[in-house]
């Protein structure tokens, strides 16, 4: 009844309308309650709807300019701005014409321009006159002192743009500090303190509504009342002073752009904004990658934009990315750690132990996915036991059943330790439904940090992550064929008379069929010039096209619980660790089954240092080392003596490489070889090895 009550009060006391609008800044009031009140009021009339949006836009703009003031409390002002913008976007979406209903987004049902909600009829307190004499250093200032209509949010976005342009200019100068900007900031005279937090003036300013930064030493030190120093006392680094503030306003800008677009689409205006300020945004992310999860949500929701920053994100420690992954995955969910939380009987997954795969598939497909994300309760038919122990057993049994040959979903790889989707799985009429279920189980396991005792081929992990496969991935299912592809790439085939065309024969249920790799492929000869394309297309046929329906079905289930934007934070090796856990590694067995070549012998000083460093590594780092050299995080049954290479059994091998400064170790995973430079000290060896382990999968050889 809050909405109805407020409606009556406003009828008799119209001034209370602005009081309600101002309440959006009050953290003590529940945001959901305010949304409901404003939603109810906005439905009363078209003019009321526009009035609410206009008022919210003005309050958001005021808070945004306060946030851009270096003397304001960052934490409080940031929360206030984002809270108001969330409410604004909610009200905007429920208007007479929402972006999702297919109508023209520029107009509502009465053909009133929706952009009108951003406009006001006079210059509000947000827009203040600035002494032009104090802006003489500005080359492109525009100070419009007329009383024509202003757009409060557009003023805020313009301020944001100016700040980013200013920082980009400093970055281009290749200076270590921003002394020039700082001097501009500090030389501005303090003006009146009627507002709680004035906005800063800066070199490219020109919009009314900004007040100069005070030079009061006490005020300059009060950047963060909460106790977190946001900038150096001497104001040497303007990026450190402004990055978080600007990032929060960028988030608000994204939210406002998104609420005007259909679900799932990114605003062209915002994409243009990111491209324009690409260098500055990358600088922010480089300095503090967690900004992506705090404010740059648009990167997680827009793969096209995320690709611009992926190299920065993946350079962060695996442990940190795991924490960010689960923090964002579980954001907004109720606390799942309550020990005595009652279980709704209707939410229990009741499965039959003697038909666990089929019965689990049936109950999971009928269950509410949102509730499954929050928690899982499993009970076996005819058994009383429940709890986390039963859930772990359920995941453990299902992970084995997924690769049960009776269901024909997966086939073993060439080395017999990993699994790949079966291209002939359609012998099982329910195969796509089961693949979807398999994706749900792995997604649920990852969501709830439950490990599965199953390993897939490297190419299948790539499919889950959306990473293109390459010819080396073929080795997992056909090592000899992979060698042939490698030979074609390494040799001149001009005069060999291979007579290859862009079509290949492939096995379909025991019968050989010719499949074109591209339109008209049967009549296109493979030449020295196009052989790389041929190899890639053959790879895609065998590793992707042949199992595309199975991959799509699996991902449909997996993405019900794990968003594609989050899982792409990892590579295929890390995904294996997330799903299957960290294996135990016996260093003594590793040492005993290692060979040395190219000049190294067991007793060499560098080799002794190497094994000393391996002993000092954490379990996670040892797994990274094993992955780095062999391409796998697993030690096969029987230990290191049974490690497979491209041509069969192949021991872990260390080869000598001449040392040059800053040279990193490299590897050849096909032959399980670590190419270890002859480092002059144990300390340098350890440092270079750790750099290679954390960055090597991205192709770095120097650092």
TrEMBL record:
PROSITE patterns for the chain: HECT
UniProt keyword annotations, A-Z: ANK repeat, Cytoplasm, Ligase, Membrane, Repeat, Transferase, Ubl conjugation pathway
Alphabetical GO biological process terms: Golgi organization; membrane fusion; protein polyubiquitination; ubiquitin-dependent protein catabolic process
Residues in HECT domain copies: 368-703
Lineage of origin: Eukaryota, Metazoa, Chordata, Craniata, Vertebrata
Cited Gene3D superfamilies: Hect, E3 ligase catalytic domain (3.30.2160.10), Hect, E3 ligase catalytic domains (3.90.1750.10)
InterPro entries registered for this protein in UniProt: E3_ubiq-protein_ligase, HECT_dom, Hect_E3_ubiquitin_ligase
Cellular compartments per GO CC: Golgi membrane; nucleus
Region (Disordered): 191-210
Pathway in which this enzyme or protein is active: Protein modification; protein ubiquitination
Alphabetical list of SMART domains matching this protein: HECTc
EC number: 2.3.2.26
Protein name as annotated: HECT-type E3 ubiquitin transferase
Single GO term (MF): ubiquitin protein ligase activity
Active-site feature positions: 670
Catalytic activity entry: S-ubiquitinyl-[E2 ubiquitin-conjugating enzyme]-L-cysteine + [acceptor protein]-L-lysine = [E2 ubiquitin-conjugating enzyme]-L-cysteine + N(6)-ubiquitinyl-[acceptor protein]-L-lysine
Gene source species: Pachyramphus minor
A Pfam family assignment: HECT
Annotated SUPFAM superfamilies: Hect, E3 ligase catalytic domain
Subcellular location: Cytoplasm; Endomembrane system
């Amino acid at each position: 009844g809050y909405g109805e009550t407020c409606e009556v009060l406003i009828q008799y006391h119209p001034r209370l309308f602005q009081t309600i609008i101002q309440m959006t800044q009050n953290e003590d009031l529940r945001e959901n309650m305010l949304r409901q009140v404003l939603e109810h009021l906005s439905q009363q009339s078209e003019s009321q709807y526009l009035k609410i949006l206009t008022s919210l836009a003005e309050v958001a703009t005021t808070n945004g300019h306060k946030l851009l003031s270096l003397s304001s409390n960052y934490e409080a002002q940031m929360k206030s701005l984002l809270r108001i913008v969330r409410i604004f976007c909610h009200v905007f979406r429920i208007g007479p014409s929402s972006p999702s209903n297919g109508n023209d987004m520029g107009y509502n049902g009465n053909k009133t321009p929706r952009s009108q909600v951003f406009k006001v009829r006079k210059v509000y307190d947000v827009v203040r006159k600035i002494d032009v004499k104090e802006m003489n250093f500005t080359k492109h200032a525009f100070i419009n002192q007329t009383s024509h209509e202003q757009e409060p949010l557009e003023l805020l976005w313009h301020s944001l743009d100016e700040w980013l342009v200013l920082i980009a200019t400093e970055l281009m100068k290749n200076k270590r500090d921003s002394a020039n900007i700082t001097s501009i900031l500090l030389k501005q005279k303090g003006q009146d303190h009627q507002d709680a937090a004035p906005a800063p003036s800066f070199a490219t300013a020109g919009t009314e509504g900004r007040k100069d930064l005070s030079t009061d030493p006490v005020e300059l030190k009060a950047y963060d009342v909460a106790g977190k120093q946001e900038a150096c006392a001497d104001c040497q680094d303007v990026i450190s002073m402004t990055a978080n503030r600007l990032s929060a306003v960028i988030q608000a800008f994204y939210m406002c752009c998104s609420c005007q677009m259909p679900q799932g689409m990114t605003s062209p205006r915002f994409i243009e904004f990111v491209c324009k300020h690409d260098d500055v945004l990358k600088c922010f992310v480089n300095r503090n990658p967690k900004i992506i999860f705090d404010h740059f949500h648009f990167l997680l929701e827009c793969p096209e934009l995320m690709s611009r920053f992926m190299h920065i994100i993946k350079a962060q420690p695996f442990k940190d990315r795991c924490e960010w992954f689960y923090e964002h995955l579980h954001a907004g969910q109720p606390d799942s750690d309550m020990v005595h939380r009652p279980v709704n009987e209707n939410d229990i997954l009741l499965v039959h132990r003697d038909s666990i795969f089929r019965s689990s598939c049936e109950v999971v497909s009928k269950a509410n996915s949102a509730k499954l994300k929050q928690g899982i309760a499993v009970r076996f038919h005819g058994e009383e036991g429940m709890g986390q122990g039963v859930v772990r057993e359920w995941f453990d049994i299902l992970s084995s059943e997924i690769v049960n040959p009776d269901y024909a979903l997966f086939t073993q790889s060439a080395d017999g330790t990993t699994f790949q989707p079966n291209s002939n799985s359609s012998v099982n009429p329910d195969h796509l439904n089961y693949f979807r279920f398999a994706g749900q189980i792995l997604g649920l396991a990852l969501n709830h940090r439950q490990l599965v005792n199953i390993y897939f081929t490297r190419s299948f992990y790539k499919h889950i992550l959306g990473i293109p496969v390459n010819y080396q991935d073929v080795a997992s299912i056909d090592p000899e064929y992979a060698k042939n592809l490698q030979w074609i790439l390494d040799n001149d085939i001009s005069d060999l008379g291979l007579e290859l065309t862009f079509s290949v024969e492939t096995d379909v249920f025991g019968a050989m069929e010719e499949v074109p790799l591209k339109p008209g492929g049967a009549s296109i000869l493979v030449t020295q010039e196009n052989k790389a394309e041929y190899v890639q297309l053959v790879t895609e046929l065998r590793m992707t096209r042949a199992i595309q329906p199975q991959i799509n079905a699996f991902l449909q289930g997996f993405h019900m619980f794990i968003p594609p934007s989050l899982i792409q934070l990892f590579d295929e090796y890390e995904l294996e660790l997330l799903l299957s856990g960290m294996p135990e590694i016996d260093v003594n067995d590793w040492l005993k089954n290692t060979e040395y070549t190219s000049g190294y012998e067991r007793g060499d000083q560098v080799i002794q240092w190497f094994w000393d460093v391996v002993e000092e590594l954490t379990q996670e780092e040892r797994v990274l080392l094993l992955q780095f050299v062999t391409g796998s995080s697993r030690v096969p049954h029987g230990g290191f003596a049974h490690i497979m290479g491209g041509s069969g059994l192949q021991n872990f091998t260390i080869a000598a490489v001449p040392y040059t400064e800053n040279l990193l170790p490299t590897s050849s995973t096909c032959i399980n070889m670590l190419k270890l430079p002859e480092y002059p000290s144990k300390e340098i060896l350890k440092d270079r090895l750790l750099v290679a382990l954390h960055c090597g999968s991205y192709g770095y050889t120097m650092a």
